[in-house]
Amino acid sequence: MSELACLIAGVLAENMGYSGHSFLENCNKNTCFIRLNRYPPCPFSPETFGLTPHTDSDFLTILYQDQVGGLQLMKDSKWVAVKPNPHALIVNIGDLFQAWSNDIYKSVEHKVMVNRKVDRYSVAYFLCPSYESTIGSCKKSSPYKSFTFGEFRQQVQEDVKRNGHKVGLSRFLQYNNQQIQKEMAPH
Q1: Can you name the CATH fold of 2-130?
Q2: Which residue ranges does the record assign to the Fe2OG dioxygenase domain (predicted)?
Q3: Which residues are catalytic?
């Protein structure tokens, strides 16, 4: 999975004109991980979340889902079901790749809905850098401040604890809305 994830990330970087994709040098087996997911059936409500809407906090996620279904992606402000395919893997862009690419690639918002009658299983591989790795930009000008993966993860955990949900990349913009409004106000 590690080799596949690095290959895909490398191809995406090359498509942007970057053959020297230094972020891959900081991704190794110590920081990347696999998550095995089991979503038990829920007979009470067809609208029960297995995973609430979110984006992934890594560079890339490679996902294999079983034939039960339940994965949905946000597309054009609507939730779209991802039909299970036993011969395909799903590749999601994560927040770090979005920041590195200056928003050329977007981190996809997704959720999982549980099934009423049967278990749902999936396997996800997360391509992550070391916690000390600075998430730079592929270009000099960036909408994001310089930050490390460790700082990003810590902020995500604090936001979830404080607000009940992840705020994500907007926390690391060069200018947030309050700063922009303050700068645009008449003096």
Answers
A1: Jelly Rolls (2.60.120)
A2: 28-129
A3: 120
The pTM of the full predicted model, rounded to 2 decimals, is 0.87
67: CB partners within 8 A, 6+ apart? 84, 86
- Closest C-alpha among 89, 117, 92, 118 to residue 107: 92
Residue type, 107: S
* Token reading at 140: 């000099």
CB within 8 Å of 107: residues ≥ 6 apart: 55, 56, 92, 93, 94, 95, 97, 98, 168, 169
Helix, strand, coil % (nearest 5) of the chain?
30, 30, 45
Q: pLDDT tens for residues 8-31? A: 998 998 888 876 556 677 777 778
Name the residue ranges covered by the structural domains of the chain: 2-130
179 pLDDT band (50/70/90 cuts)?
low
* Site of tokens 């770090």: 96
CB 97 within 8 A of CB 59: yes
Q: Which residues pair with 148 in a beta bridge?
A: 134
Query: Do 67 and 86 meet the contact criterion of CB atoms below 8 Å apart?
Result: yes
